[in-house]
Design a protein that fits this description.
This protein is of the alpha+beta class. It contains 25 helices and 14 strands. Strand 1 (about 10-15) and strand 2 form a beta hairpin. It starts with 11 loop residues before the first strand and ends in a 5-residue tail after the last helix.
């Protein structure tokens, strides 16, 4: 038995997704406070004093129930029940509190001390595992951003909590020996919200400029993660901890007719010391050249920081071919602004702006690459047949590379087309590798390549690429969710569930994480938890109708065949009315209802339509009942996924 260690009342402890502050009598889940007080919290404290050891019921009575007139048994059972409810635990499936019949209880999860949040810890305390605090942030002296809205403050607290938890568990590790920089969102000081695309575009361009300096020694955080700090009052040392960066570039943009003023400041995060700051007044038409000028100043400072023993070689990556006019570049920025929204309406607007940019400059390769990116995602977001968009995506990507063969975005789009439309896995892998070679800091290329590898059952390689994407874009919801999807395909359901829950702690309405969490629960036989996700998420299609196909699958897997058939009938009626292509999940529903002939017929139809649903054929657990059927094996061969 291990030696008993008395807990200091100032200690902060972590287990699973929870963090307990003993002094404040407070417990948080993913950074969000959980309502737990009185005797349940006291019981938790007693159990945490001796993790892994049995605490008898008599010990608890002596410490908490000295009044002889109290119904001890009822009070203890009630307190334990409340504690388990707060932790999401149960006697049947104990993750934290194990019942020892007629004796007492034992805390079974590993307990770690969070040194980053402890108020006073002895010198002999263990080495900290976590990092940072989710406490309320104050505004740094050098940042003058508008006051944060209440909802944004909650988001920042939740995000900070998630980051602390994820770094202590299944989080990406910063690569050793590299300096990492975050380009924080440039502040739009024009007074016109319609100019957000310009300040956001400047942020994205600076990320690209710095990213091509020296990928071996310098990492730059991707756009999605830094946008979490837009208009946020967060201290730079906290940003440094959350993103794992040593420096940030921050600034603002003002626009007056055809003039632009940009302020930029390069700051060390650990002590918020400015390395340099500049102010630039330029013609708007020279914005592209100005971005290169700022990037070069950063390169010079980093070269000095690395010192003579760590040379900072010039990158052999060619900069993208500049547009012939600022108007074409301006339209391109608007296209990227709407493309990043990742909605059906946003993609439609993005396609319009990219096309307008091309009309202004028919030789602007990046506009073609943007159009290729947009069309490559259209099928997934609009429920229209892929055959309607993928040929357009291919034409745009090939035109972009004809003009400039060094565009990583265009190679990535070609890879996605080869994977999702042609089922050509060799070409997809070659193009993904080429994109990563051209731009090792392009998080989307690593993310989609990881997905491609996982579809082939190459899970170790897929996880390595996914980890790299997460290092580059640690706050991206879609990258974090796709990481969980790889775990799900690999049948690591517990880890997948933890990953999806972490995403939903950051954004409870993120539908892809909700769906996949339900599927992971289903494979674990946790059907009530799977169906509960539908109620919590209020799932709907883009036209507002319920996701009857998902509900049919979940009910069928849980044994509610009548309810499954009812949901299936609603889906079939809507599908006939709208002439929409077969959804991925309805295939799974037919399998779950043991209607294999219908499922195989739909799979063959999906093959004729070049459907994206066939990419998961080899690894989707829901298709396991079909694997012994020769028709299924023939389909695997046709899509290039046979053994």
């Amino acid at each position: 038995m291990s030696e008993k260690k008395s807990l200091s009342p100032s200690r902060v402890l972590r287990f699973g997704v929870f963090q307990v502050n003993l002094a404040a009598r407070e417990i948080r889940k993913h950074g969000v406070r959980v309502r737990l007080s009185g005797q349940p919290f006291c019981i938790l404290s007693i159990l945490l004093e001796k993790p892994g050891e049995v605490v008898t019921r008599e010990e608890m009575r002596e410490k908490l129930w000295t009044d002889t007139f109290v119904d001890f048994e009822h009070s203890l059972n009630s307190a334990i029940k409340k504690l388990r409810a707060a932790l999401g635990d149960s006697p049947e499936n104990s993750r934290y509190i194990e019942t020892i019949p007629r004796v007492g209880y034992r805390f079974v999860a590993p307990v770690e001390e969070d040194m980053g949040n402890a108020q006073s810890v002895p010198q002999s305390a263990p080495v900290p595992v976590g990092a940072g605090s989710a406490a309320e942030a104050v505004e740094p002296r050098h940042r003058r951003w508008p006051a944060l809205l209440g909802t944004s403050a909650v988001l920042i607290v939740v995000t900070a909590g998630y980051l602390m938890w994820s770094r202590a568990h299944d989080s990406p590790k910063a690569p050793g020996g590299r300096m990492t920089v975050a380009v924080l969102p440039f502040e739009n000081l024009t007074g016109d919200a319609g100019q957000e695309y310009l300040s956001d575009g400047l942020t994205e361009e600076m990320i690209a400029q710095i990213g091509r300096l020296d990928p071996e020694h310098l990492g730059v955080i991707a756009r999605t993660s830094v946008m979490h700090y837009k208009r946020g009052q967060v201290q730079l040392d906290q940003i440094g901890r959350e993103l794992g960066v040593q420096y940030v570039l921050e600034g603002s943009l003002r626009r007056d007719a055809d003039k632009v003023r940009i302020t930029a400041q390069f700051v060390q995060t650990k002590d918020q010391t400015p390395v340099w700051s500049r102010e630039y007044d330029r013609e708007l038409s020279s914005l592209l050249a100005l971005q290169g000028e700022i990037a070069q100043e950063i390169a010079d400072e980093i070269r000095l920081t690395l010192g003579p023993s760590r040379p900072f070689p010039a990158s052999d990556r060619k900069p993208a071919v500049a547009p012939s006019s600022y108007a074409a570049y301006d339209l391109y920025l608007k296209g990227r602004y709407f493309w990043n929204k990742r909605t059906r309406e946003g993609l439609q607007q993005a396609a319009e702006y990219f096309q307008q940019s091309i009309d202004k400059d028919p030789n602007y390769a990046r506009a073609y690459a943007g159009l290729a990116d947009t069309f490559a995602l259209m099928g997934s977001w609009s429920y229209a047949p892929q055959i309607e968009f993928m040929p357009k995506a291919r034409a745009a990507a090939l035109r972009a590379l004809q003009i400039d063969d060094g565009l990583a975005e265009a190679h990535t789009s070609l890879a996605l087309i080869a994977e999702n439309y042609d089922y050509d896995w060799q070409t997809a892998e070659r193009e993904f590798r080429r994109a990563i070679q051209l731009d090792p800091q392009y998080a989307t290329a690593h993310q989609w390549y990881a997905e491609c590898l996982s579809f082939q059952g190459r899970y170790a390689d897929a996880m390595a690429e996914s980890e790299r994407a997460r290092q580059l874009d640690p706050l991206s919801l879609i990258i974090a969710t796709d990481h969980g999807a790889i775990l799900y395909f690999a049948r690591q359901y517990d880890r997948a569930i933890d990953q999806f829950n972490a995403v939903l702690a950051m954004e409870p309405s993120f539908s892809r994480a909700q769906y996949l969490l339900s599927y992971a629960y289903t494979e674990k036989g946790m059907f009530s938890e799977a169906l509960a996700q539908e109620g919590a998420g209020k799932w709907h299609q883009s036209d507002g109708t319920p996701v009857w196909d998902v509900l049919a699958y979940l009910h069928a897997r849980s044994g509610h065949q009548a309810q499954a058939r009812s949901e299936m009938a609603k889906w079939e009626q809507r599908n006939r009315k709208h002439s929409w292509p077969s959804a991925d999940v309805i295939l799974m529903a037919y399998v779950a209802m043991d209607e294999k002939d219908k499922a195989l017929a739909l799979l063959d139809q999906s093959y004729q339509n070049h459907s994206i649903s066939l990419t998961t054929l080899k690894v989707e657990p829901a298709f396991d009942p079909l694997r012994g059927d020769p028709r299924f094996q023939d389909l695997l061969r046709r899509v290039g996924l046979a053994k």
